[in-house]
Write a structure and sequence with these properties.
Blueprint lengths: L11 E10 L5 E8 L3 E5 L2 E3 L6 H13 L9 E8 L9 E10 L11 H6 L2 E7 L10 E2 L3 H11 L6 E2 L3
Parallel strand pairs: 1-6, 3-8, 5-9
Antiparallel strand pairs: 1-4, 2-3, 2-7, 5-6
């Protein structure tokens, strides 16, 4: 018997995110500051525009948020469904497909201005070492440390893993 769909009847936005890793297995995260829920460090990415493919959306989002251009998009490794009303009221949650992006280390320089990024609740971008992800800060997904540890030590999963909230 199949479990009921927790998103049935909800307005869910399709989105993509990138697990951007450098050769030292550092992960690039963006810091969101939401008025109600507060600070969250999350993977770069965002919603798909009409007619946009996952890869096109990731290329756009990575350039806008972190300044990574022409990234080689790797495999779809993780899935995440996040149920929370959007501030603008258009959606009840988001369904994310997360892709692996391996890249040389670079200095993040978003193509969008900080004024524009702040309007999207983005306030910082930085690299994190695996051992820093236990620091008690609000990471998204919450299992980021465990999932990243498994990926680094066990390799890419054969099929995408549900990483929870």
């Amino acid at each position: 018997m199949t479990a009921p769909d927790p998103t049935a009847g909800l307005r869910i936005r399709d989105a993509v995110r990138a697990l951007v890793l450098d050769p030292d297995h550092r992960v690039l995260l963006v810091r969101f500051e939401f008025p109600v829920t507060g600070e969250r460090w999350a993977l770069p990415g965002g919603g798909l525009e009409p007619g946009e493919s996952d890869h096109d959306a990731l290329h756009r989002e990575l350039a806008e948020e972190v300044g990574l251009v022409d990234a080689e998009i790797g495999p779809h490794i993780w899935d995440r469904v996040h149920i929370i009303p959007f501030i603008d009221g258009r959606y009840d949650g988001q369904r994310e497909r997360i892709y692996l992006v391996r890249t040389p280390t670079f200095e993040p320089r978003p193509h969008l201005s900080w004024h524009d990024l702040n309007a999207e609740y983005v306030f910082d971008v930085r690299w994190w070492r695996l051992d820093e992800l236990h620091a008690g800060l609000p990471f998204v997904p919450q299992s980021l440390h465990a999932q990243l540890h498994a990926l680094v030590h066990d390799g890419v999963p054969a099929t995408p893993i549900d990483v929870g909230t």
